Amino acid sequence: MIKVKEYSGHIRNWKVLCEELKIAPNLSREVREELILLKAYETWGCDMGNHLYGMFAFALWDEEEKKLFCMRDHFGTKPFYYYETADGQLLCSTSIRKIMEQPGFVKELNEEMLQIYMSLTYVAGENTFFRGLKKLLPGRYLVWQNRKLKIERYWTPQFCPDESKTLEEWADEIHTTIGRIMPEVKDENETAESFLSGGVDSSYVLAMSDVELTDSCGYEEERFDESGLAKQTADILGRKNARCLITPEAYFGIVPYVMYNMEQPLGDASAIAFALACRATTEHTKLCYSGEGADEFFGGYNMYRNAERYGENLKTFYVGNTNIMKEDEKRKILKKYDPDVLPIELVQGIYEETEGLDPLTKMSDVDIQIWLEGDIYLNVDKMSTAAGLEIRMPLTDRRIFDIASRMPSRYKVDSEQNKVALRTAAAKVLPEEIAFRKKLGFIVPIRIWMADERYNQDVRKKFNSDMAEKFFHVDEINAIFDDYVGGNSDNWRKVWTIYTFLVWYEEYFVKR
To answer: At CB < 8 A and 24+ separation, what contacts does 448-455 make?
Structure first.
């Protein structure tokens, strides 16, 4: 007998699968999806992941064979962790805290990860901040039998540029595919809302959906506030808009909650705002859409326009969307520095997979495999789960990626614009001023707030704490902090990354 031991996710192509696997389609979602996992495993075995579209991480236990089978989706939208105990057992879960509660887990800090974190601001690769606790990486499955662990890859991002199509043909394919995916994102009896910023991705998702109410974040600081643009978009599309005003007091007050529920430190300042947005949204819905994935697939970041200039040098420095602290600076501030622990080693295998492809494709693939999994999707999953909200991301789909993987880079970025083909597709249902609006990003006024003595007292306290003394040369990190408060706003990311680690460490190793 096989049973579902652990599952988190949403299977989009359930109607097709129910027909193929002879499952009654009128079952509850929970029962239906469990049956899909069981019957897909019985039918396709380790290849079952290639038959599923959507977001998933799960563990199946085969009682007859005494075998554990675990799988994580293609892009890592749902987390999955495992830990081998001293007595030869395997603990696994979509939650680190659930593993920590099980017999045999020994809580010990993996301090090497701090060195990686200080550059990337998130936990990249298979290791975590807990020694021995590992992530099952995207597109992999795990088999545990007879106390032996085997991990295999069932899916790898592959890129094969097709030069035969025009820009308009690519835009047509994107638009048609999104139109086919959207009805799968929720059942007919479900009602969803949608996060909406001033950008094209969330606006396109909204325009292609039947959502009536949208949810946006706003700030009193006008130059950081996209909520006005979001409201304009909602008005144009005939939808309502709810605005969550984020104050510095609320922002700093929720940081311990975020680091605890994130389970590992995350130095992405937008994660705090997102947590507040999730809390506000869950007051009137339990299901919400979000637009993640398109930037990495279709060339959405402004730095991608420099790809050709970087050329082969990418292999020496590009480790993903963030790289805030170089090795010489980490050597100065960390009490334990290992010259053999380098972020670039995390991506060497990805560069081997993309050998011979153009620089933009290489940058995108690094971000798809490292940044999305380690930062963006982790944030979406953990903060929504903590708030009691379910988030589905229509643009993160293997069928969408399939288009991006065949699209030549010149249709992704040009000298003036990013996401060229996606914007051209979006312009079929959005006004051009929205479809081709310059990318702003999910910006937060943290660089202003954290320099203000009214809000940075806990930062200063943590920088001078016994905790900080364990890991950092306190005079060096305070020099960075003082330089930032004195006017060098470029240092805000460094300060924030150190601070978020210390808050997380206090939550997991001091308080508990």
So the answer is: 448/221, 449/248, 449/251, 449/252, 450/484, 450/492, 450/495, 450/496, 451/484, 451/485, 451/489, 451/492, 452/248, 454/248, 455/248, 455/249, 455/252
Distance separating alpha carbons of residues 169 and 76, to the nearest angstrom: 30
Residue 220, amino acid: E
Q: What is the pLDDT of residues 245-260, one digit of tens each?
A: 999 999 999 999 999 9
Please, what are the domains in the chain? 2-153 (3.60.20.10), 167-324+337-435 (3.40.50.620), 446-510 (no CATH)
- For residue range 147-163, what is the model confidence (pLDDT) as tens digits? 999 999 999 999 999 99
The separation between the first and the last C-alpha atoms of the chain, rounded to the nearest angstrom, is 38
What's residue 442's pLDDT? Answer: 55
Query: Of 203, 209, 204, whose CA–CA distance to 232 is shortest?
Result: 203
Q: What is the pLDDT of residue 229?
A: 92
Place of tokens 């790898």: 156
* Residues of the chain predicted below pLDDT 70: 439-442, 512
How far CA 146 is from CA of 38, 189, 202, 341, in Å, comes to 22, 44, 47, 33
User: How far is the C-alpha of 437 from the C-alpha of 442, rounded, in Å?
Assistant: 14
Is 130:111 a contact under the CB 8 Å cutoff?
no
E-strand ranges in 305-384 read none
CA atoms of 235 and 430, how far apart (whole Å): 12
Q: What angle do CA 109, 113, 116 make, to 5 degrees?
A: 160
Q: What is the pTM of this model?
A: 0.96
The enclosing H or E element of 390 equals strand 390-392
How much is the pLDDT for 441? 59
Report the length, in residues, of the chain: 512
Query: Cα–Cα–Cα angle for 16, 59, 129, nearest 5°?
Result: 125
* 292, two tokens: 């993640």
Predicted pLDDT of residue 415: 86
CB-CB contact of 132 with 106 (8 Å)? yes
Pairwise CA distance, residues 190 & 127, whole Å = 37
